Amino acid sequence: MHFCLTGQYTPRALNAILENPKTDRQEAARKLIEAAGGKLISMFSVAADGPGVLVIFDVPDPGAAPAISGLTVTAGTLQNVKLTRLFTQDEIKQVRQNAAKLRSSYTPPGS
To answer: Which Pfam families does the UniProt record give (predicted)?
Structure first.
């Protein structure tokens, strides 16, 4: 399952990065994600809303993603974290097929 995690670095984390500007945050992310049985797909730095990151990763266990997200918060690395489940085009095709099958079973408000 693919996920997108976004967040801003905390002041504490930014100070640590400034003290060691060659720190490799991508390697730290890769290590954590791989420890959860996943794979880092991509990682970007973002400047909107303050210095932060956007990380796309794949994990086989859906419970691993919130654990990864929670660890970054409790460790004091990130704040304002958002975790979003991403769907491949094959997965969304299956979702659409399921929705089409269920359509007749749903009664919308006012019907």
So the answer is: GYD
Number of folded domains in the chain?
Answer: 1
- Domain of 95, in residue numbers: 2-105
For 4-59, the pLDDT digits (tens) are 999 999 999 999 999 999 999 999 999 999 999 999 999 999 998 889 999 999 99
Residue 93, both tokens: 């095709």
Give the bridge partners for 66, in sequence order.
Answer: none
3-state secondary structure of 70: helix
Q: Report the CATH number that the domain containing residue 57 is assigned in CATH.
A: 3.30.70.1060
What global pTM score does this model have? 0.87
89/108 Cα distance (integer angstroms): 27
How far are the Cα atoms of 12, 48, 84, 101 from residue 9, in angstroms, in the given order? 8, 12, 18, 44
Torsion of CA 47, 40, 30, 68, to 10 degrees: 80
